[in-house]
Each structure stands twice: as C-alpha cells, then as structure tokens.
Amino acid sequence: MEPLPYWIQVLQALGLGSIITGIMTLVGVLVGSRLSYGRSIKEKFWDVRREAYSAILSELAEVDRIIKGADHWIATMGPENYDRIGEDRDKIATHMTVVWRKYSDDHLIMSDELVRIFENFILEHDAGDPNVATNPLRRKIMTKYRALLLAQARKELAAPDER
User: Fold this and answer.
1) Quick one: which of 42, 124, 140, 152 has the most CB atoms within 10 Å?
2) How far apart are the C-alpha atoms of 107 and 100, rounded to whole Å?
3) DSSP reduced 3-state for 56
4) Is 146 within 8 Å of 154 (Cβ atoms)?
C-alpha cells in the first residue's frame, strides 16, 4: 500500500478533518435555517393576505345580497316597505364601514393590482346617490367589482403550482 500524501498526513495529525466536518455542518444548518425562515415568512404573509381579502370579500358579499334582495320588495313597493329602504341603507353603510376599515388596516399587504381594483370600485360606488340604498347602477357596480376582486384574490392566493 502506498503511503498517503504528506498534506493529508498533516491534516490527519492536526485533526482538521473533524474541524472541517464541524464547519460544514454549521454552514449546512445556517443555510437550511435561512431557507426555512424565508419560506415561513412567505407562508405567514400569504395567511395574512388571505384573511384580509376574505374579510373584504365577505362584507361585499353581504352588501351584494342586500342590494339583490331588495329587488323583490322594490317591485312590491307599498307604504309597508318604506322603512325597509332606510334599514337596507343602514346595513349597507355598516358593511361598507367594515370594508373600509379592513382595507385601511391591511392596505400595505395588498397587491398593487387589488388596490387599483378596489379604489376604482369605491370611486364608482361612492359616485351614486348615497340616499338610494339600492338601484340598478349600484347592483351592476357591486357585481362587476366583486367579480374582479374575487378573481384577483384567487389569482394571488393560488397555490404556487396552480399559478
């Protein structure tokens, strides 16, 4: 058997093999930790964004339900339904207050595209007569923008392999 090269004999004598193994183990742990941390942050960010989008879309669904539900009683408008107009306007205002609050609280985590869609929705929604709780224009605006916001949220929140 041929003797080992001199430099390998020196490394063995100094015990550097153990030191190199220890250093490489430490590097491996640090790299793994860093990769895991990055993934964890992305998952937490995804969870926070999902919660914000869900809250806004849920409240908008309630507003949409109120507006669409008014079709029936508007068609049968009589003195007994006059109070209902005010009730629906108040319910819509309550839900829209929650939408605005959630949007304001979570604006920084929302994508630029979702913010753009939301702000266009608000511009069109608020351009109508605030004293009219339901009307065909508001129904169209609500239907249009709920669909756009929902599609954008689904696109952003899709699993990576679904994008």
Assistant:
1) 152
2) 10
3) helix
4) no
